[in-house]
Structure formats: structure tokens, C-alpha cells
Specification:
The structure is a homotetramer.
Chain A lengths: L1 E5 L7 H15 L2 E5 L5 H5 L4 E4 L16 H6 L4 E4 L8 H13 L3 E6 L2 H9 L4 E4 L11 H4 L1 H14 L5 E3 L6 H9 L4 E4 L1 H4 L4 H9 L3
Parallel strand pairs in A: 1-2, 1-8, 2-3, 3-4, 4-5, 5-6, 6-7, 7-8
């Protein structure tokens, strides 16, 4: 199971969460990555944790002021990137372009989608993985694996129908080891989570509980 | 073969083009539709030609000032709609929502895409048809079937890999009966065209030449 | 006072509301306009009511599939247009381009803005009028003139500081003659309203009550 | 004169340019800042050069995956930010929100605009400075001060008509000391430049030539 901790624009200390994630990953052999703001990437990567970007734009080197260039996030230490998170939805053509930009820069990719149909579409664009996150459950604390288990199973089926080699992560409301185990039962190979760790009083304890479900 | 004439925001007389299309469709049994600006839909539909919208938003009835509501274009006489044209690219989630809105209003749908990979993704969202239009060829007068025949064949294969029942139209640079015949040879079941008819001195003659390729 | 009834994407009968507005305007000498979906413009204009568009894009004739061309809405009978409604916010450069497009097509313009600072900015772009609508009050039924009278007075001051000749309309929560009278007291020269008329059981009665405040 | 070097998404070494800028600034007392990709901010700030962001989003701490949070760029060492660059145009309401976010994080602000009218609008939103950059001249090597001196003078007048305390920078095609001197003559208090330094074989020499115009 891959655990990807999205720090969004939360008022947490990204380095403290990264250190906690690095410690738990070392102790447990779990694969845990942290995705901070682009401006925090080099500080987070400095902790030794697996570091991801939250977004890259589908642009090449050139006149793109204010863009997030895949090569720049890779320079800063990112080894992967989310694309099309529900808080940063992209045009279909830009999901495609973002994937090509990430590939060019050697970044692993997870494309997010809202429902099984969109998971199928995202899979057709050739990402390393897809993630299903029903927007109505994000940030609720109610895990998608409990609130709507069918959406996870249907997403796994939708991805497999297009390309069996693309794993499905699941997000929205995941915070405990039990949630992670349930997500695995439903066929997902990882989880996206955010507030459950980033806003925890003790991120390290939250991560230890989470990976106990592996 | 389905011939869809997109009037874009051209300074043509939409009713004159619609009358020409209606006449040629009647005379030849070709299926020809005209897609004008939303504000011109009722005038175009009044000619009796098959009338399409150029775009609908993925919204329901409600507080959506300045949107293009699927039910409103259907009221005005549209029976189908383009979605995600390269001049009106939508977010992946909004292509999905636009398709659901169009279905709800009883509109037939063609989702446009730039390349075979995006055609596969569009097909996964469940449209009635998809169209491949390499943006670099739009408006050039060089037909995609000649400039880049592989892109048409690859698009047909990409759609079939996801759902064999979804036909592929092809666009970009189509203007003659020869172009249409070539598009058909490559596996497409229709064409999108715009300037070749809308900017023609004699739209009726242009359409007659075009459908001679059927 | 100018009364602009925005039908948004409401499930109302646009022609029935337009007829009610035309009747009340005739009976009372109030200036009342109706802004329907683009696809409904010609039907609404056919009633004889003053007809406005909800939006125009900042484009010229050309390859702009799915756009709302100012000339097309004028063809369909619109004599004015909203620009930058809070449900259709535009980039600063596109507010400017939309205004120039509307001018070119002979449309009167009202640029919407969320707060006095943005009203000042909108005024600098040279519209015929500006409107202040705090987004948090839209659709609440609580009139801005009551919930936040300062925002109306400040908007009037902000517009005047940039260009004294640009009148300020006010929107958000307006539905009664009392609300309209209060808006006038605060310095506004018109009102934008939507659900108060469009969703009324009896739009004509709602409009008669409203203009009784003039 | 303030010299702001925008590195866009150019394939330059941001630290090398930053070191060159820091050296020239030290030697000449010119005010020179460098604006890299967000992911490069901390590396650039580490050189001691005045560091700016290319963009911030108008968001607060919270669920905003893939955003550029003003506090995050400040953490990474930025002391100012561009907003609404022509390659990253924002909605009018988001220019306002971006300015408020930057203020909250203690960042100095320059809002970019395409023409004098938009400069007036930007000024009304309360930035620390505005910049006029006609998009058609960006990257041409033809300085706006030479190609279209009126646009600079008109921009200075437009800003002053709204708020006399807001200085105007000028951009587009600036690369030599002569260009900078011309910009100053026309009333601007600084310049934005990009390729003239970022793509120079010797950025330090390019900057020395540039500030010789002060």
C-alpha cells in the first residue's frame, strides 16, 4: 500500500510532518510520501522523505510565468506528482499535457478523478496510477471505503477495463488503519490522505495507526 | 457519414448556411447538421435543418448566470451538442458533467479531443460519438486525413479499445468530397468542418461537393 | 431606477416572465429589462421587453467555438449585457475585452463586482454602469441594502472616485419595493434581481410590488 | 529604478542568475530582484538576492491542493510577488484576493496589466505597484519604451488618475541600459524583464549594462 499525505495549503509545519513520515516509513517499511506546497518542496525533500508535488502544469521550458514546471519540482526534490486533484481540476487536454510533462521530468504520476467514469478516462491517458476521491467526502472524516464502498470497487473495475496495469488509490476521508485496510479490501493499492495526518496533533502517531492497517 | 458544420463565431449568415445545408440534406439523403452560436439556435432550427449547439455547460437548472444550459439549447431547437471543442476545452470533470447534462436534455453528444489518447479518455466518459481534431490543423485547409492519416486511424483504434460502439468523427482541414472519402477510408463515420462551408462563397456548392464523397 | 431581471439558468418560462415584465414596464413607465439564457434571447426579445444578455465573451468574429459573441446576442435582440457576474467571473483582461466587444456590437454594459474595491476597478474599464453584489448575499432573500448598507454606499463612492458618470446598480437579495427604495436611498440607480421575480409564483405581481418602490 | 528579473519557466540556472543579480546589486546600489519558479524560491533566496514569487493565489490556509499560498512563498524567502502576469491572467476577483493574500503574508505586490485602462483598474485594487506590459511586445526584444512610448505614458497617467501613490513599472522587450533610461523618461519607476537577462550568455554583464541606465 502506498500512503500519500497531501499537505494542501494547511497551516501545518511541512518539515515536521515530513520528519514524522520519514520516521514511520523507516520503522515500518511502509511506503509513505508527502506532498507539500511547491515552495516547500526542497525543505520537505531535505528530510529524506519521499516527496511529491501537488500539481504540475502541462508546459515545457519557456514563457510560462506563474506556472509549475515539472522540471522545477523535480529539481527541488519531488519524485512524483498529483495531477487533476479535485481542488485543482484541469482541462482534459491539460491532464494529458501534465502527464507528458511529468514523464519528461522523470516524475511518477497519480491522476485524481471524481467517479469511476472519470477514473476510466484518466486511465486512458497513461498515468502511473489513478486515484478516486468523491469530492463530497473530501475532508469529512467519513472514509469513502465506508460511505460509498461501491465507488472504490467500480473505480478499480473502470481502470482495469481500460488498462489492467494501472493501480487505483483511494482518497476522501481516510484516516485510520481500519480505513486503509478497508480500502485495500476493495481493491485499491494505496490511499491519499490529508487532514487526518496534516491536522493531527501527533502526525507520527496518526501515521503509525494508519500503516498498522497494511 | 455525418457532416457537422460548425459556424463558430464566423461572420457568416447562419440562416443562409442552414438553408443551404437543409437543401443539400434533402436532395442527397446525407445527414448534415449545423452548429451556430447559442443565440442563433432558434433561427437556425427554424429552417428545418438538424441543429446542434457548439457547447453546453455541465450545470443543472439553478444559479448559473452566463452558462449554457442544456435544456435551454434544446428548447431553442438543438438536438445535439459538441462538448470540449479545442476552442472551448473543458476540465475532465466538466466534460463528464456536460455529457450528463446533455443526456438529461435529450441531446446527442460529440466530444472533441486533440489526439488518440484523449479520444480514448473521452470515449470512457460515455458520449454518443467522439471527434479527433489535431489543433495544429484546424483552419489550415490541410485535411487531417492527408496531413496525418495515422492520427485518424489511431483515434479509431483508441476509441474501439475503450468502447467499440462509439463512432469517431474527424475534423481539422476537411473541405472537399475527397477529404470526406479519405476520412471514411480511415475509419471515421463523419466529419466536423467549419470554414470550408461557413466561409465559402457558395455554401450550398461546398456542401454538394463535400457530400459527393459519401 | 433600472430594474434588471436575471433569469440565470432557472427553470422558469422565460417568455412568461418577459411578458410580465413588458406589461409592468408599459403600465408604470419603469425601466425593466430581462436577461435570459443566450438560447432564449430571441424568444424573450419577441415579447417586446427590453432584453439583455447574461454574458458576452471578449472575442471578435472568428474561430471561437462555444463562445458568446456580442454580435450574435445583438442579432437575437439583446440591447445590453451583464459582464463578470459573480457566477461568471472573468479575468481582468477579459472584462476589458468583453466591454470592447459589447461596445462594438452596440450593447449597453453593466459590469458586476463583489465589493467596493472591485467596483472601482470595474469603473476604470469604462462600462456604462457597474453593479455591486456581495456573493454571500446572492439568493439569500436578505437585501444587501439591509444586510450591509455600507457596501452599497462604499461602492457608490468607489465608482465616483474613478468616474462620476458611471451609475451603480445594486444586487443580491433584492425582492420588494422596500428593498428597491432602500437601494435608491443609498445612492444606487438600479437593481439586479433574479429569484425574487424568476421564482415568484406570480412574476407580474412581484414586479409590480418592486417598482412601487420607485 | 526597480529591476525585477522574471525567470518564467526558462531553462536557465536560477541560482546562477540570482548570484549575478546579487553581485550587481551589491556593486551598484541598484535594486534588483529575481522571481523564479515557486519550487526554486528557497534556493534563490539562499543567494541573498531580493526574491519574488511569480504568482500567488487568492486563498487562505486550507484545502487548496496545487495552489500557491502566499505564506508558503514567504516561508521560502520571497518578499514580493507578481500578480496577474499576462501569462497567468487572473479573474478580477482573484487579482483582488491575491493582493489581500499577499498583504496578509507581508509580500510586496506588483499587479501586471496589458494596457492603460487595465492599469487604472489594477491600481484601484490597492497594489504596491502596477506594471504595464503590452502582450504583443513580450519576448520580442523590442522595448515598449521605443515601440509604443504612449502606452507607458498613458499607463502612468491612468494609475495616477486613480491613486497618485502607486508607481508604474514597465515591461516587454526591455534589455539594455538605454531601454531602462527611456522607461524612466516616460515616468516609470522600474522595469520587468525576463529573456534579456535569463537567456543572456552572461547574465551579470546584461544586468550591469541594464543598471548603467539608472
Amino acid at each position: 500500500m502506498f500512503v500519500l499525505v497531501n499537505l494542501k495549503a494547511y497551516p501545518c509545519d511541512p518539515v515536521a510532518v515530513a520528519n514524522a513520515a520519514a520516521t514511520v516509513a523507516d520503522d515500518t517499511d511502509a511506503r509513505i510520501a508527502v506532498a507539500p506546497q511547491a515552495a516547500h518542496l526542497s525543505a520537505v525533500a531535505g528530510t529524506g522523505v519521499e516527496t511529491w508535488a501537488q500539481h504540475v502544469d502541462g508546459v515545457e521550458h519557456g514563457s510560462h510565468t506563474g506556472s509549475t514546471l515539472a522540471e522545477a519540482v523535480a529539481d527541488a526534490g519531488a519524485v512524483g506528482t498529483l495531477i487533476n486533484h479535485s481542488e485543482r481540476r484541469l482541462r482534459l487536454a491539460d491532464v494529458d499535457a501534465g502527464l507528458r510533462a511529468a514523464e519528461r521530468a522523470g516524475l511518477e504520476t497519480v491522476v485524481c478523478a471524481n467517479n469511476p467514469r472519470q477514473v476510466g478516462a484518466a486511465t486512458a491517458l497513461g498515468p502511473d496510477a489513478v486515484a478516486v476521491e468523491p469530492p463530497e467526502l473530501i475532508g469529512t472524516g467519513t472514509p469513502v471505503s465506508q460511505a460509498d464502498p461501491d465507488v472504490v470497487e467500480d473505480a478499480v473495475a473502470a481502470a482495469a477495463a481500460v488498462d489492467e496495469s494501472v493501480p487505483v488509490l483511494c482518497g476522501a476521508g481516510i484516516s485510520t488503519g481500519e480505513d486503509l485496510a478497508a480500502a485495500r479490501e476493495l481493491g485499491s493499492e494505496g490511499v491519499l490522505l490529508a487532514s487526518g495526518v496534516a491536522k493531527a496533533d501527533d502526525p507520527e502517531a496518526a501515521l503509525r495507526d494508519l500503516v498498522s492497517g497494511v
